[in-house]
């Protein structure tokens, strides 16, 4: 029975991590597209 509880906890933790990673990836994607970036040649 304890093993079943441990597996359930592991699955819950895994789901939480996966959802956080998805959020972070989406945020990074948004920042990559929205951040104004000037190359070195544009500065001179």
Measured by DSSP, the beta-strand proportion falls in under 5%
H and E order: HH
Helix content: over 70%
Weakly predicted, low-confidence segments: none
Shape: rod-shaped
What class would the helix/strand composition place it in?
mainly alpha
Continuous helix count:
2
Q: What is the count of β-strands? A: 0
Radius of gyration over C-alpha positions, nearest whole angstrom: 20 Å
Characterize the main sheet. Answer: none
Quick check: average pLDDT?
81
Quote the distance from N terminus to C terminus.
Answer: 68 Å
Protein name: Variable outer membrane protein
Keywords: Plasmid
Organism: Borrelia nietonii YOR
Question: How would you describe this protein?
Answer:
This protein is mostly helical. 84% of the residues lie in helices and 0% in strands. The chain has two helices and no strands. The chain has helices spanning 2-34, 40-43. The radius of gyration is 20 Å and the shape is rod-shaped. The termini are far apart. The mean pLDDT is 81. This is Variable outer membrane protein. It comes from Borrelia nietonii YOR. Keywords: Plasmid.
Write a concise synopsis of the structure shown.
The protein is mainly α. The chain has helices at 2-34, 40-43.
Q: What are the defining features of this structure?
A:
single chain, 44 residues, mainly alpha, 84% helix, Variable outer membrane protein, plasmid
Please write out the topology:
Elements (H helix, E strand, L loop, with lengths): L1 H33 L5 H4 L1
Organism: Borrelia nietonii YOR
Protein name: Variable outer membrane protein
Keywords: Plasmid
């Amino acid at each position: 029975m304890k093993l079943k509880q441990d597996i359930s906890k592991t699955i819950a933790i895994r789901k939480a991590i996966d959802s956080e990673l998805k959020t972070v990836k989406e945020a990074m994607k948004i920042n990559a597209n929205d951040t104004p970036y000037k190359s070195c040649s544009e500065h001179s």
